[in-house]
Amino acid sequence: MLINHPLLGPRDASEFTYLGDASLLNRPDWQGENAVEAFHDYLYLRDNPAGLHRELWFHEQGDRSWLVVTRNTLTHEITEVVLASEVAKNTKRFEGDAQ
Amino acid sequence: MSVNRLHGGLIDHTTALSFSFDGKTYQGQAGDTLASALLANGVRLMGRSFKYHRPRGVMTAGSEEPNALVELRTGGRQEPNTRATTVELFDGLTARSQNHIGSLKHDLLAVNDLFPSFLSAGFYYKTFMWPRAFWEKLYEPAIRRAAGLGSVSFEDDPDAYDKGFLHCDLLVIGAGPAGLMAALTAGRAGARVILAEEDFLLGGRLIAETQSVGDMSGADWTAQMQAELASMDNVRIMARTTVFGAYDHGVYGAVERVSDHLAVPEAGKPRQILWRIYSKRAIVCAGALERPIAFENNDRPGVMLAGAMRTYANRWAATPAKEVVVFANSDDGHRTAKDLIAKGLTVPAVVDTRADAPDMAGTEVLKGAQIINTKGRHGVTAVTVRLANGTTREISCGAVANSGGWNPNLGLTCHQRGRPVWDEAIHAFVPGGDLPMGQSVAGAANGVMSTHGALETGTTAAIAALGDLGITATAPDLPQVEDRPANLSPFWYVSGAKRAWVDFQNDVTVKDVKLAHQEGFRSVEHLKRYTTLGMATDQGKTSNVTGLAVMAERTGKSIPETGTTIFRPPYVPVAMGTLAGRSVGKEFHPTRLTPSHHWAAEQGAEFVEVGNWLRAQYFPRKGETHWRQTVDREVLATRASVGVCDVTTLGKIDVQGVDAAEFLNKIYANGFAKLAVGKVRYGVMLREDGIAYDDGTAARLAEDHFVVTTTTANAVTVYRNMEFARQCLFPDMDVQLISTTEAWAQYAVAGPNSRKLLQKLVDPGFDISNEAFPFMGCGEITICGGLRARLFRISFSGELAYEIAVPTRYGDALMRRLMEEGEEFNVTPYGTEALGVMRIEKGHAVAAELNGTTTAANLGMGRMVSKKKDSIGSTLSERDGLNAEGDLRLVGLKPVQSGEVVAGAHLMNATGPVDAKHDQGYVTSAAYSPILETSIGLGFLKDGANRMGETLRMVNPLEGQEVLVEVVSAHFVDPEGGRLRV
Amino acid sequence: MSDLKPLTPLGGDIARLDQIGVLRIAENPNLAIASLAARKGRSADVAQTVKAALQIELPQPGKSRRTVTHTVWWMGPDQWMLSAEHNAHELLADEVKAIVGDAASVTEQTDAWCCFEVSAHCEHGAASSEAALFALFERLCAVDVSQMVVEDATRTSIHHTGCFLIRKEDGFCVIGPRSSAGSLHHALVEVAGGLG
């Protein structure tokens, strides 16, 4: 597979390490109500779609960027690749992190 | 001249090459393959079949060959299951037939052929049900011996194999008429083109047929194309290169056989290269593969595909026999007969299944006739023909040219689950619409069964592919080619035949297919697995469609309704050595050497692999006969005076930024924000699920600067996780990370005299006295006259100890200096074994304890997990399930009287049953403590903190061990830590 | 300076030099390296101060820049590597930190790396020399080396070893992890020996 790195262009998937569902960006508030349940769901409950899937890849043999890759799990077609840090910055985060 | 050598062709009649087959020496010509040279020498029998050990000869002229598999070369270069049809002849080549016991002509296992019903479809499933014990003792060895193909020598392959990576706009697979035109069109347009051809000559069918292209022979026209393509810098012609797989996003795998045509590769050069080709577009121009008609005893040596017979005659000036009967269901039969006659061969008859077949000069066309049997022990001597009127006629001959039509060679179109579709016009499967990304198909591979069509579609496919890339290409002038349609009338097998082969390599007959149907294995996938049709090295290239046709007829459905098989990579077998490349032996993975490696090697150290690192395990001295002697000495000397150990392999991550301390608060379960500059703190990292996964120290060099150390094994993982936290979880923090593991040579200097030794090296002006540089202090200093260094007062051994780091290039010299200056203290280098003993004596956890199931609480460090702040894993570490009463706790263990503590053993109460239900815990680490003069261990014990002094049974039922052990503190040595602080 | 004697990454007192056919593979131990990572929101400051002090522009992704004294290449977002001759700039990290102040994090990287300068000198001219270099590197890494122009810099994997590859006027500079220098050198030399 090739992943079209937003800064470096197409790179072989072998340069990357796969993590999983991009929902891992949405880490819950440790002080929220039911924090244990929220963390449990965050860590263990994942969608496993047959189709488009947003997932995290780490460019380990490259620029060390974490990427959010939108990949069709049926065809391996990759439709979007963005820097995870950009997504994370735009993710509405819990208060504790805003400082 | 050899008996069956003809005139002409593309071989060099003036250059003779000597080779041997089954120990007998023959002469071939330059340009021959092993198959063509054997045929020219009158050798038809080349091997034995897989199951029945039937005599077999060559059937095809390409990589689809099912029969003529040989063991090529000898010794480390011996290569089994090599297709004689693709082996380029070289002087001194040696080959042997395979799959027989005794000689090829008198194979003892040919007895299998007498019991075909015993070995029919589903044989494995039916036979090897019981008794179970027979499997390993009888069935397995017997089958391996009888049904195997070639053998290997078990010697190391002396040759090198390279891997490589290529990039192009357009990959053209196959250099027949379609491929040549596609490459020419794209090459002239300036695109980056790779033209890959499996054969050692370009041209495909153009160099196998007598048909002219324009006013030239096919070979001359090919040569002209090749010359123009070779003159273009943007075109790379790769002959002897098989594209074997189509992978995601335009990536193709290919094997280039660089040196296979030589007896021995040129010095240093690889035998083969495994290429990964990144293509923006690819055109499959792989042509078509002929399919045989199945008839009784159609597997005798001499029965060949008609197209192959023409290839041998036209290109290689070779023939299996002087008299050849042609059997066909299209005008290809006539074409074959015409070519053979032109080469001076006799064609007694063309047996044509079509009642309306046209007549031809020079031979008799038997219309509406079928070959119903063949004769001959080790090769065809005659065929029996059933004429249209029902009478039979026996015709003597030495070979049969057999043609049942052509199947597009569409393997590569299926590698991404593409499904072929049935084309009623050509009675064959053609590529479906679901091709791999960026791939298109041209020529015969796409069902275009004429030379003109191949030339034309090669061009149009190239123009379309380049158009996608924004490159404008124009069609070259197409040469005139006279094509006549073949007028094929489908005919798959001769009815009534009992043993008519469909799959020659797996010995699957028409009857086997029918049996599969009868027994309910009717889906194509079941048929394949039940009969083994289409398996093994040829993957059914000549047999799948015929098998399907027989099944279709049985089920009363059409062929497309019956199904289709698709193909997976690799298109042809790829040697394991090719896939391994240069990653073999000592180069299996990169080796990482520590800064003191060369010095340690001089000392005669034993090394141990830790990941890719080689670390000194222990340093044996003269007179020491057992590793334990060495390790005990190293431990005792360190604890008595001073020892030095290379700890460079521990991961080091430089953490800087305004929020560096805040960031480490997130990464470590315990707090780091308040750590003073110039201090080091031990920290434990959790996974988000609350399990401890790494530990180490972080040293604060400045307000905004820390150096984090990780375990050797987890250096990469910790860095990755820290980048994840930085980029994905806490993107607003100002923190920068970089690994500095290799930048610094770091040595542990441990023992009561460690300070005295270091004081001899540290430059004046730096005070490392206990007061000025207390336990857990750190600082940047200079040593040995101005060399920058980092000093950390930390201890893994439990002794007064330091770790000193200098730029790696000075690491070797620093080790030597430590040894020189430490002579007065009897300084002792120690390796990972002594390191391990001392850490067990001190009760420090390592990977054996941080084993992916243990929490900080299990490790006795539950109170380190701060509840006042958020850190990775802190929330879920509070889960009830991880905090139950009586959970496992890290404890020390030692035998009550005698015996050894053994890692992996389990702990049971002093009395009561020994079973999983009564399990009390397990031992994680064990060592002999030379200080305590006893075996000791660390382990996890239920409610361990409250069971000090209790006697347990340590059991190892696997080896019948049972030892009474006492539960003690994990800190065997200096539990108060007084030694650390002096 | 200290009387401790340095070793080259390959463990020698002097740099290793291999001439294989037209290819020349030279270990370059005379290299000081420092990483430079801009603090949050300080990229422009860093670029400006570095430019003012060293007359070198911090390059975009996939690129490097060089002056007579310094080379700098992009390593990751807001992160660069700077190198200079070790003989003259052993304390490069300190020099750079003095330039950028609190606008960037600077880390000494000098001995984390080994460096091999790979060049080709073919009597048939520059094109043949280039062809030899491309033939070597296409068997070492997945980078489309023939399309790299001078100043291109990328990180890639050479025989399972993560390396920086920088295109220079006379060839390529391979910068890999120092502890694997032997394996990396072995790969370069073995593959070079198999060309032809």
TrEMBL record, chain A:
What the entry lists under InterPro entries is as follows: SoxD, SoxD_sf
**What GO molecular functions are on record for this protein?**
sarcosine oxidase activity
Q: Which domain of life is it from?
A: Bacteria
Sorted alphabetically, the Gene Ontology BP terms of this entry are:
tetrahydrofolate metabolic process
Any Pfam family matching the protein: SoxD
State what protein this is by name: Sarcosine oxidase, delta subunit family
Q: Which organism is it from?
A: Thalassovita mediterranea
From TrEMBL, chain B:
Keywords of this entry: Methyltransferase, Oxidoreductase, Transferase
**In the record, what terms sit under GO molecular function?**
aminomethyltransferase activity; methyltransferase activity; sarcosine oxidase activity
- A Pfam family that this protein carries is FAD_oxidored
The Enzyme Commission number assigned here is 2.1.2.10
Q: Which residues form the Aminomethyltransferase C-terminal domain?
A: 889-974
Example GO BP: methylation
Show where the GCVT N-terminal domain sits.
597-869
Q: Residues in domain SoxA A3? A: 498-582
Q: Which NCBIfam families match?
A: soxA
Q: What family does the entry list?
A: Belongs to the GcvT family.
Query: What is the protein's name according to its record?
Result: Aminomethyltransferase
Organism the protein comes from: Thalassovita mediterranea
From TrEMBL, chain C:
Source domain of life is: Bacteria
Q: What protein is this chain from? A: Sarcosine oxidase, gamma subunit family
The organism's taxonomic lineage, starting at the top: Bacteria, Pseudomonadati, Pseudomonadota, Alphaproteobacteria, Rhodobacterales
